[in-house]
Amino acid sequence: MQTTHTSFQIKKDHPCLAGHFPGNPIVPGVIILDEVASIILQQDSVFRITGFSSVKFLQPLHAEQDVTVKLGDKVFTSSGRSKIKFLIYNKSELVAQGEIKLEKTVGSE
């Protein structure tokens, strides 16, 4: 896995947390994956995300916790598409892992 590291934090006033376990807000997985997708697209805007090959959440993420995303190298498939593995950590604890599928946007050939 390459050394691409990016951090983020979901603030306690994020709208997704309203009513999501009041008093002990847990960040929904879709919000975590949205952050990962944004990080990948910021690094390489000629791609679009077509889906996730796999995602495994290993422990909950709470509001205000610092998260580090580690991205693997982009692997090109025989179909001309790409995929990237990712790991998501809170301190040294693995929160989630998975693989995201990408393809080049039209006109970026």
- Quickly count the helices: 1
Helix-strand pattern, N to C?
EHEEEEE
Distance between the termini: 26 Å
Question: Can you tell me the residue ranges where pLDDT is under 50 for at least 5 consecutive residues?
Answer: none
Structure, explained:
- With 109 residues, this protein is mainly β.
- The protein has one helix at 29-43; strands at residues 4-8, 47-57, 67-71, 75-76, 82-90, 93-104.
- It starts with a strand and ends in a 5-residue tail after the last strand.
Main attributes?
single chain; 109 residues; mainly beta; Thiol Ester Dehydrase, Chain A; 6-stranded antiparallel beta sheet; 1 helix
Summarize the structure.
Helices cover 14% and strands 40% of the residues.
Secondary-structure map with pairings?
Layout: E1 4-8, H1 29-43, E2 47-57, E3 67-71, E4 75-76, E5 82-90, E6 93-104
Antiparallel strand pairs: 1-3, 2-6, 3-5, 4-5, 5-6
